[in-house]
Amino acid sequence: MKTRVTELLSIRYPVVQGGLAYLAYAELAAAVSIAGGLGQITAMSLPSPEALREEIRKVKTMTDKPFGVNYAIGQHNRPYEHMLDVAIEEGVKVVSITGGNPEPLIRRLDGHDIKKLVLVAAVRQAQKAEAIGADAVMAVGQEGGGHLGRDDLGTMVLIPRVVESVSIPVLASGGIGDGRGIMAALALGAEGVEMGTRFIATQECVHAHSAYKEALLKGSEHDTAVIKRTLGAPARVVKTAGSETILGLESQGYGYEQLKEYISGERNRSFIYEGDDQKGFGWAGQVIGLIHDVPTVQELFARMFHQADEITNRLSTIMKG
What we know:
globular
């Protein structure tokens, strides 16, 4: 496939793997890049710049394909400058920025041959990203997993609105997990997709506990919930006893100080690493309703683009009447 996204990122297929806090490490990133997409490492889940450098070098031993590093600056109260310097020093070709204000990171990347992707959830955010120098935006609809925008806009409406509002390439995110979603995104004007939840349910996502993957397999599109809405930071999770506790506390009017223990990274890791669904929670989008197995990343790509070919043929037949 050839779009401005494949050309910008030097990849075969216009598919970017999401940042996936605590999960997107070398094994998954390399597998996605080898399959023809853009794999990514999650920088801010790592404990130090040295750990990030090690992870980047590990990917390089596994593939010579391009890969990116994601900086989730909105969910971590810690400096990112030294972490970003590692990506620059190691010659990483792509950096993506999620949460928070992307401008300081983009300014720090000025003068370096690094493509800059910014996650947005509204037209105004996309326009700002373009104005400050983003090379592309990833627009996430409210179906997506993890942190979302506050406007509750679905992917079907958000993507064409963003496409018509900026001149840089747009990747669609939220509710996409197969060839149908990819083709729908292209039909809406996007030139690629970002997928997160679907890549958790792959064999190369080795850090995800089997209970987490099983929850994605067994869950339907009704088995997610949005937590932290009362804090102004809505985020979609797969339903667990832990997430139900959070929602119950929110309904009682608990504020951040009272909730912080329950929504902490430690509680997140307790489920995604240890399978403790009583205390913990895990990010997941509504696309879990479309997840029925745990393939290799290569198998997933082959299936997605075989399906995309079938859709192309079907639409061609329809258009011919």
